[in-house]
Amino acid sequence: MFDFTRRTLLSASFALGAVIATALPAAAESTIKVGVMSGAEEEVAQVVKKVAATKGLNVQLVPFSDYALVNEALARGDLDANAFQHKPYLDAQIAARGYKIVPVGFTFVQPIGLYSKKVKAIADLPKGAKIGLPNDPSNGGRALNLLAAQGLIKLKDGKGLSPSLLDIAENPKDLKFSELDAAQLPRALPDLDAAVINTDHAINAGLDIRKDTIAVEKREGNPYANFIAARQGEENRPEIKTFVQSYQSPEVASFLDTRFKGAIIPAW
Q1: Which residues contact 18 (CB under 8 A, 6 or more apart)?
Q2: How confident is the model over 78-90, as pLDDT tens digits?
Q3: Predicted TM-score of the model (pTM)
Q4: Are 192 and 177 in contact, with CB atoms under 8 Å apart?
Q5: Are 92 and 138 in contact (CB under 8 A)?
Q6: Helices and strands in the chain: count of H runs, count of E runs
Q7: pLDDT digits (tens, 9 = 90+) for 95-134
């Protein structure tokens, strides 16, 4: 009688446990939505997504083709994070729009280059040459600093990382500048003598930083390292931290080296 009762109680307990287990919802999957620029940056993010999956994080990538929309989407709450920008760009966006967005971890550096289909060296640029520049303040300033580093122009003192065309103090070759949306510069290159083009747009257009440039930014101490950004106050969310760890992984570093061969390098 005792054995029978014990077996009955045990069977009832197991059955009740099974009913409860069936009734309980499955544990919610940890998910994060991340905005990236389409093209090379999205390629890298796809590798990050695979690494994150091994850490229990589902990354939903949201690709953009317009820089100006990515921080807006993050600030609005449509994204949990983004990974596409450097500090001068974010600083300019915050100054213009008041975003409460902060960096949470470095990703990579894309040295910007001066590309040309018409000349093979800086010295070959003719007087009055037409030079294309990105029309957003941070990348436009970055382009001017590259030209100044090559001796093509001289900038007024104290202008730092964000000079404008108004800050050109000397222009010995009487260069003519054409400010265009960064994504349009590769298409405009045949009509220009040279253009300063962001690496992601150059890669998307099939340009080679090793063969098609006449000047390239220094990589050491480059202030334009890209990073992952999140809304202020959400920096310590577990999902954000896992995404940063996944980005700053040996798998991603290896992919950058084999896929981009120096055009995009780790910044962590």
Answers
A1: none
A2: 999 999 999 989 9
A3: 0.69
A4: no
A5: yes
A6: 9, 14
A7: 999 999 999 999 999 889 999 999 999 999 999 999 999 9
Residue 145's nearest CA partner among 137, 211, 66 is 137
Q: What is the pLDDT of residues 131-178, one digit of tens each?
A: 999 998 889 999 999 999 999 999 999 988 889 999 999 999 999 999
Q: Please answer whether residues 5 and 51 qualify as being in contact, where contact means their C-beta atoms are separated by less than 8 angstroms.
A: no
Q: Nearest CA to 183 among 204, 208, 214?
A: 204
Cα–Cα distance list, 148 to 17, 138, 205, 216, 223 (Å): 73, 15, 26, 12, 16
Both tokens of 41, joined, read 């940056």
CA–CA distance, 79 with 73 (Å, rounded to integer) = 6
pLDDT category, 13, cuts 50, 70, 90?
A: very low
pLDDT for position 27: 42
119 CB burial (10 A radius; 0-12, 13-18, 19+): middle
Mapping DSSP onto H, E and C, the string for 61-121 reads EEEECCHHHHHHHHHHCCCCEEEEEEHHHHHHHHHHHCCCEEEEEECEECCCEEECCCCCC
